[in-house]
Fold this sequence. Notes:
This protein is of the alpha/beta class. It has eleven helices and twelve strands. Strands 5-4-2-3-11-12 form a six-stranded parallel beta sheet, sandwiched between helices. Strands 7-6-8-9 form a four-stranded parallel beta sheet, sandwiched between helices.
Amino acid sequence: MSKRWIMIGILDSGIGGLRAARELLDRVPDADLIYFGDTARSPYGVKHGDTIRRNASEGLKFLLAAGATIICIPCSDISGAGFDLPDGLPRRSIIDAVSAGTHAALALPQLNRIGIIGTPATIASHAFERALAAAKPGARVYANPCPLIVPLVEAGRLTKPETFRIIKNCVSPLKRRRVDTLILACSHFAVLRRTIQRKIGKRVFLVDAAEAAVADTATRISGSPGAVSRGKTSRFVVTDRSEYVEHAARILFGGPVALELAPIPPIRSETSPPEAS
Length: 277
Ligand code: DGL
């Protein structure tokens, strides 16, 4: 059987996807991995979909140029806004949080009243609602934007009373709707999963869209005949590397992580103004 080199690319708005990277490395320990986090332009969660799409398309080109052969997008902002497919990258080589999260939710036994929490951009994209409506037309879907969770996680305030209060406020409207399933549509929410479960109630199934994208990517690789890595290389490339970013990266990755600064701009977009000569 002929061998096929596999390099996993992870595309994220910033550092939230580092948790997904950690999980992927746990599941596929000998993977070659390249991470791209657009920390210079994040958070994407408060941006217009067109801006997210433009930035994400540049990130995809960067990953492709760096050798990625399969790309995992744990970021719901990007998955919801969409992206332009660069030449040479088939759509089936991209596994995104909206498709994977919806797929994971559909596998649950009691999917009738579904809640979604995410950033304002993800909720405004209505991407999860569209995917769920197509696959399960009778289901009731309720979404609530939670803009404060990302900065709280990045600041490491995981067990502070204000964080508990904000999560309670965020899930309360969905609790009142008596949802049976809650989709965590943001790369940052997994680190607060236990708190979210406590606040929404233990009978509600939680589906982490980022984790679903990781699981699908790992399954795709293990089911790919002849797939081999060149040898456990991991690169974590970001477009800004401030002290804040370094600190938050450690929180999301769950330990030290060597961040590499991307060449700026990582890929020149067609719409960039020409350089002054
Ligand atoms: N990565 C984003 C997501 O999963 C959260 C952070 C941001 O908004 O940039 O939606």
